[in-house]
């Protein structure tokens, strides 16, 4: 019966495998030990390469072993002829390939491969590009491969056109691929820049891309990757940095920008001129972050009220010593203060051509919505399109669609609430503008009863003296946003969901704060009132804490200027 | 000069068709002693694929009148045995019609063409004379990638070298003669029964689970076409196709995807299809307010149904299509390299690997039945009396008495060798086209087009297979579709035939003004004849269709008959039938358990075969009788 | 053992891996399976039974810069009644045609197989002729020179082998490995172009992913 064939049973196979594994572990440990010995002895030879290769084939993710390998290779660089060195590095490539076969997402192996190519006397980029293509065929979503591809493309100076064609191919085989859409958004602006700088890419290409995305979103409205790309396409044109408000008084001077920036890191600077004389001092971000919309001026010498009586006042904004914007200030009554303000800009400001494209898009997505009434991405896109086309025309529709989104995508209802809050505030600010918001002495800004869940654009209210945010859904997390209210003297936060004042910024102008009917329960939750040292009245009725007998004593301890009769 | 075979078996299988081969493999796999015979010198019977030469031989055999049946020597029967002569009722094809459309020989010089003899094998009168054009009058067009050039052959102008290179790559404008084609006979693999495999169909699953898959290679069908509004159009069948297609609007894309999704959702099926139980699939589609384009795609190309298909049947067919998407390639279908005839051979190999005995050119001349006529004892093969516990037989070999309920159905088949694809594209395509029943025609026609990358034919040529239910003769049944898709006039190679899209108006104009538009087909609004593939050679035949008949009625209980090729796209019927036969023979045994991989094979005495090798010897004796199987673990 | 097993390169890297289908042909009982078993398992059995279940084995051969993996197909006895299925040598890149040096008929039959391969198999197939049972030199009837001359004429590799003593067994496979064209194969496993073997792992993809 010799030579008859049988097959291993599962148990036998497992046993064989277990033994093999045991042997491997033993070998592996011995290998690691030997390798480290050799390294510690500065012994760089072929054996190190052999051992480390075996170790890496077993586990490609040990950075140290790759490092030792590179040390040896660099050592050989001085030892070997250029041809031999090339050969040595050539042989590194199959090793990384084997490692990547075992783990296609091994950072170490990918990194080693690019190191090898950079070190190699004559790298073969074409081959590498072919490898990328092959790997992306196997797994079109492996972002390591995409990253590596971008590296190869840069080194090999592959024309962006070719890469654009490649990304088109990848998308046509499977459009559920963030990487290829993202790659596209990187390639397009360099290939087809918009001469008018109004949209991300040239108008004709922009239309093409919107139509491509539409094909994807209609084919599968649940696929996020295409929608994300569409967001990029619909993103509003780059807005330049502007000075939007400024205020000067003896006690307080600040400037407001339309974007939150970090001055020092962006080569930006602000300068205050009084009667054409630059005033020395430094600008500090307002709030607790390093970047801010609102920048407070700390003059070297106090600005005297006398200097506000006559002549001109202006603030200028510079980028790399070049003035990019300026704001002239009006003096309000001699010796008191000066202020300046520009109209906020929330419209997308697209060209007529693009707007009509967007209108067609909007029609299409209404069609899609008819077919898929519960598609959240479709609804959201319709909202974004309406906002981009004509915010005022579509106000009611926007709010209604957001309400719908909250229902069908309840998990993200908070996100939709915030979005609605932002739109509410934008609409509000637009209207205030008509009513003369820019006048800081206007009676009261009444952002009340909008059910706001979050605060946006408050820096446009930096000059206002009375701000009413009552009857909203504000929680503690919105408090830091209040930092922009630098001129605010009376702040009303009644009928919100505040549980504490944690996060309350320093508001030096604030005299009266009303917190009626919130959810503040303990005195300790009020400790941040200390940030507003000039407060003389705090209203707390309708909070549990109001029943605390020691409340008054506690507050007086925090706020020296507090008037007894004003704690209610 | 006959080989002596061992005389006792568990299973004798007669015929190497698909079902027979699967049963043979399954029996051998569980250790049964199997003898597998085929009277032909090739594997597969009516499921075979042939090279061009082999096909000629096959046709010759088919044309020969049925041999006078040899009388069976009754003296060979033992006492108490009856001999029943084997038959050939369903192994023969009919209405065989072969035809050439090119010259027998093409000389290098244009003049030579005139002297070439035109030959035709039997068939109808041929319309060659109309198309014959003298030298110098005709124009040969050169295909140079996208740019087309028309050149007078008389000028002997050669395209410039770059284009010439392109030409040789595309190789489409080569002048084929009969002799040249015959010389390349080995490069053909022509299927009598072309079959596609659904990527998640029962055969693919069986090939994988049994590990027989390693014997075969496949290519993915690259596109599914349909015939709509008088032209060919790719059907968007995968998600990627739907995304990329220019042929449907974006709202249609959503409607299509939505419909396909609802066909896939089994759980909701009850609600979705409520009220359509007795209605047709078309009525369901109409209720979904699909545009007529989409209706066409779904009904004819995806469900591969007809207007009479019932709703749930249509849904099931759609599911079958969709479930097979996304596994291999862009369509749900696979095509076997070297043709469908490879598949039965793969099962035969497994049978042989597990000890099955193979003998081609060896017939079962008679079946030996016990005196009561209830049980089969064995077969007479030549002078040998071979005994078996079970007899599995292709219906083609069955004695007439075994198949009293003769099937009336048949298949109409057409095979065409052409000079280009029915819808040319950048890369060679592997195409499935379900041609809808048109203009009152009753039956859809399955069209499969394969090129040289599947080893179906030499580079530059295509093979088009057509199959439909037989109504009259193959030629008649397929005529309409042939005329829509192919150019079946005689060509002596001098006629200008412009192949390109009609994009270039200039070319189109020249085309229109040229006198060589034999059919004037563009008047009818169809694509001009010159754009269709030129048929070089064609073959029509009718083949019996036996999948519908009940075989158990008139046979002894241990005899199992196997059907010949059926109309379905895939081999699913054979897989099902083979499984049923196997289960009847060995109800307790597993059907084609996984064959071991090379790494799992240990030879006795080999190191690492496990410590228990010695104790297990007794057990292994037992194995020997049952043949190889996975050794039992001792735990 | 030298050329079996591990596939480590001089500097420890794996080199490229090429996979080839190799088929064995020849008359029954010339020692086809014995050659394979000697090569793959290092074994020999005097009274080798027919090779049930083991007609498909793999073995790796290590060349300087390449690892060659042979998929070795045995006839599974189908040659016995001249009934070998053509699918057997489909796509084979290499073949060993075996005869028995003590049996003239088997040499004649080997020539027939060579012709068959030249006719039917792929045009680039590497064919080796193996005169097996070289250990039985005293019973030799096929002369070495005759076989070598024939091999040269037909462009075949030629060696006399003995599965029993292992003579030239590894060598003949190695010689074939060297002669095979080794194209750049990034991924290793050898499916050419768009053709595919069906494998289990591809099952993992969800069905009907067209709509999901």
TrEMBL record, chain A:
Similarity comment text for this entry: Belongs to the protein prenyltransferase subunit alpha family.
UniProtKB keywords: Prenyltransferase, Repeat, Transferase
One GO cellular component term noted in the UniProt record for this chain: Rab-protein geranylgeranyltransferase complex
Entry's Gene Ontology molecular function annotations: Rab geranylgeranyltransferase activity
Substrates-to-products reaction catalysed: geranylgeranyl diphosphate + L-cysteinyl-[protein] = S-geranylgeranyl-L-cysteinyl-[protein] + diphosphate
Species assigned in the record: Gryllus longicercus
Function description: Catalyzes the transfer of a geranyl-geranyl moiety from geranyl-geranyl pyrophosphate to cysteines occuring in specific C-terminal amino acid sequences.
Domain of life: Eukaryota
Stored InterPro entries: Leu-rich_rpt, LRR_dom_sf, Prenyl_trans_a
Enzyme class: transferase
Example of a GO biological process term: prenylation
EC number per UniProt: 2.5.1.60
Protein name: Geranylgeranyl transferase type-2 subunit alpha
SUPFAM superfamilies per record: L domain-like, Protein prenylyltransferase
TrEMBL record, chain B:
GO biological process, one term: vesicle-mediated transport
Pfam families per the UniProt record, alphabetical: GDI (PF00996), RAE1_2_domI_C (PF22603)
Region (Disordered): 119-173, 503-527, 588-635
Location of the protein in the cell: Cytoplasm, Cytosol
Record-level GO cellular component terms: cytosol; nucleus; Rab-protein geranylgeranyltransferase complex
Gene Ontology molecular function: GDP-dissociation inhibitor activity; GTPase activator activity
The keyword Signal is annotated on this UniProt entry: no
Family named by the database record: Belongs to the Rab GDI family.
Name under which the protein is recorded: Rab proteins geranylgeranyltransferase component A
Organism: Gryllus longicercus
UniProtKB/TrEMBL annotation, chain C:
Keyword Nucleotide-binding: yes
Stored SMART domains: RAB (SM00175), RAN (SM00176), RAS (SM00173), RHO (SM00174)
Keywords for the protein's UniProt record, in alphabetical order: Endosome, GTP-binding, Hydrolase, Lipoprotein, Nucleotide-binding, Prenylation, Protein transport, Transport
Family: Belongs to the small GTPase superfamily. Rab family.
One Pfam entry name: Ras
Location(s) in or outside the cell: Early endosome
Xref: CDD domains: Rab5_related
GO cellular component: early endosome
Catalytic reactions of this protein: GTP + H2O = GDP + phosphate + H(+)
EC numbers for this chain: 3.6.5.2
Region feature (Disordered): 184-212
Official protein name in the record: small monomeric GTPase
SUPFAM superfamilies registered for this protein in UniProt: P-loop containing nucleoside triphosphate hydrolases
